[in-house]
Design brief:
ABC_transporter-like_CS, six-stranded mixed sheet, ATP-binding, binds adenosine-5'-triphosphate, alpha/beta, Rossmann fold, transport, 246 residues, four-stranded antiparallel sheet
């Protein structure tokens, strides 16, 4: 038994060489653990490996070496199918581009993951999730009839409806204005406060400052770890990481 919902040990990642270029390590031995109810942000200079780390932690990308466990289950050595089942049972994803199905209504988008997993989902569960993100009155709207912020809130409702243990968010506020970003971050904060974990990659200092813990990535490794930092603390740590890279 483990009390971590996510654990990574010495994760490395190297992509296959392109043309005659030598392969460059993108992740160089990242170890971390995330507890239930914790909101963790990953920041770092462009190209430092943030998105790659998120995809390796969530099992969407294979590791070159190291170990990742989600809800106490090691991903390495499992078949793609078994990994997908762990993701389905324990993991939710939020992307910068929302990833909603354009031809489906908000209601149908929220119900979709459970339906694809052939898992029962009640109309109450879907309605509750849409109400949680204050979109109860937009259930029949297609994504094209919703603002960016509303679409991202549908994506959050879709995650809430599956009740995951951990939510991975890749730049969830990257395409949103300040007001919509604040709403999305408030919801992610609520997700963590309700006992689920959130791991979010972001460039946004204000977004990072909503997290319990901020990991500053530099050149594929964790350079610093900040506990409940202010946006200024994150800014200073990033400036230091950029200087160290230059
Ligand atoms: N599929 C891939 N094949 C080859 N190289 C890749 C691949 N994906 C990412 N990389 C390289 O890995 C490095 C890290 O990329 P990654 O997207 O993880 O960085 P990031 O910190 O998220 O960057 P940004 O902040 O600009 O989004 C970059 O040099 C990128 O070119």
């Amino acid at each position: 038994m483990t009390d971590h919902v996510l654990e990574a040990q010495s994760v490395t990642k190297q992509f296959p060489p392109v043309d005659d270029q030598p392969p460059t390590p993108v992740l160089r031995g990242v170890s971390l653990a995330v507890f239930p109810g914790e909101f963790v942000a990953i920041v770092g200079p462009s190209g430092s490996g943030k998105s790659t780390l998120l995809y390796c932690l969530s099992g969407l990308e294979d590791l070159t070496s190291g170990e990742v466990s989600i809800a106490g289950r090691r991903l390495s050595g499992l078949s793609r199918r078994a990994q997908a089942k762990i993701r389905r049972d324990h993991v939710g994803f939020i992307f910068q581009s929302y990833n909603l199905i354009p031809s489906l209504s908000a209601w149908e988008n929220v119900a979709l993951p459970a339906r694809l997993a052939k898992r029962a989902i009640s109309a109450e569960d879907v309605s509750r999730a849409l109400h949680q993100v204050s979109l109860g009155d937009r259930a029949s709207h297609k994504p094209s009839a919703l603002s960016g912020g509303q679409q991202q809130r549908v994506a959050i409702a879709r995650v809430l409806a599956t009740r995951p243990d951990i939510v991975f968010a890749d730049e969830p506020t990257g395409a949103l204005d300040t007001e919509a970003s604040t709403q999305v971050l408030d919801l992610l904060r609520d997700v963590a406060d309700s006992g689920r974990s959130v791991v979010m990659v972001t460039h946004d200092l204000q977004a990072a400052a909503r997290a319990d813990r901020v990991l500053v990535l530099r050149d594929g490794a964790i350079h610093r770890e900040l506990l409940r930092p202010t946006a200024d603390d994150v800014f200073d740590a990033l400036a230091h990481a950029r200087k160290a890279v230059a």
